[in-house]
Amino acid sequence: MPIGISEFIRAKSQYYYVDKTLFIKDFLDQKPLVSLFTRPRRFGKTLNMSMLRVFFEISDEDTSRYFINTNIWKC
Fold it and tell me: What DSSP character marks residue 62?
């Protein structure tokens, strides 16, 4: 995957994507009041935030299709 791809939909559809969708389950199970995401540079913070946005965002488009055959879909 080239450096700088931080959109979940683009990364999943056009590049090799390592499934980190169980992060959503961990996030929901903890029920934090505030979340602070700290990781080293180029560790996937923005891509994970984009994944969360696509998962939780309410829109006219059916975004659930991006999560078919992922770990979170199996949960």
Answer: -
